Amino acid sequence: MRVVLADDSILLREGLVRLLAEEGHEVAAAVGDADRLIAVLERAERTEERLDAVVVDVRMPPTHTDEGLRAAVQIRERWPDVGVLVLSQYVERRYATELLTDDSEGVGYLLKDRVVEVDEFLNALERVGAGQAAFDPEVVRQLLARSRRTDPLGTLSGREREVLAQMAEGHTNAAIAARLHISQSAVEKHINAIFEKLGLTGTSGYSRRVLAVLRYLGT
């Protein structure tokens, strides 16, 4: 894949450059702020240069608040074919759900601690670059803990919650079946039950899967 990195930490940025190169990926650019990140994508658009994914920190200069998030949302709007993997030091619920608002395809959210788990980081990046979703299990766990306090999902069974948690991480039905050691048909039955219990059986226009995940995240 051809990847763009955006993080104000030089050590992390250079470490990722070396890691991705060793794994056979090409780093098209590595920058330290959101403005330069957007400039890289604009230049790639003008020159018809292919980019597969962007890895971006949530907090970058000048204010270290949400520059990376705003850049990620802009990239999703202007270049929907480019996958976006967001890195964050903490679980920031608003940031995770904002990226899911329209479409979860090609979007990922990982805690920075997960970067040291090389296989997990690379797997998430490759999934995002392939147009899939990849959400950190710890992010999902914390969002679920909050949703239990704020969102009436009590009608879901334990297994249905497990299936929905896997959906929130971006796994396909086949992957969910393998991870939970159940059949794919059982996964499909659980998902249909989730849609029914969340009142999504008659929904049209938006993906019921995305809406179910949004409900799960407490939006």
List its salient traits.
53% helix; 13% strand; 219 residues; single chain; Rossmann fold; 2 domains; six-stranded parallel sheet; alpha/beta; Arc Repressor Mutant, subunit A
Task: Give a brief outline of the structure.
With 219 residues, the chain is of the alpha/beta class.
Helix coverage percent: 40-55%
Strand order of the largest sheet: 2-1-3-4-5-6
| CATH fold category name of the largest domain | Rossmann fold
Head-to-tail CA distance between termini: 33 Å
The tally of strands reads 6
Largest sheet: 6 strands, parallel
Q: Average pLDDT value?
A: 83
Net shape: elongated
Question: Rounded to an integer, what's the Rg over CA atoms?
Answer: 18 Å
Q: Tell me the structural class.
A: alpha/beta
Return the string of H and E elements. Answer: EHEHEHEHEHEHHHHH
Question: Overview of this structure, please?
Answer:
The protein is an alpha/beta fold and 219 residues long. It folds into 2 domains: 2-148, Response regulator (Rossmann fold, 3-Layer(aba) Sandwich), CATH 3.40.50.2300; 158-217, Arc Repressor Mutant, subunit A. The chain has helices at 10-22, 34-47, 67-78, 93-100, 118-129, 137-150, 158-168, 173-180, 184-197, 208-216, and strands at residues 2-6, 26-31, 53-57, 83-88, 107-111, 134-135. The chain has a 6-stranded parallel beta sheet, with helices on both faces. Helix 4 links the parallel strand 4 and strand 5. Helix 7 crosses helix 9 and helix 8 (173-180) crosses helix 9 (184-197). The mean pLDDT is 83. Pfam families: GerE, Response_reg. Residues 2-127 form the Response regulatory domain. One of its GO terms (biological process) is regulation of DNA-templated transcription. The modification 4-aspartylphosphate is found at residue 57.
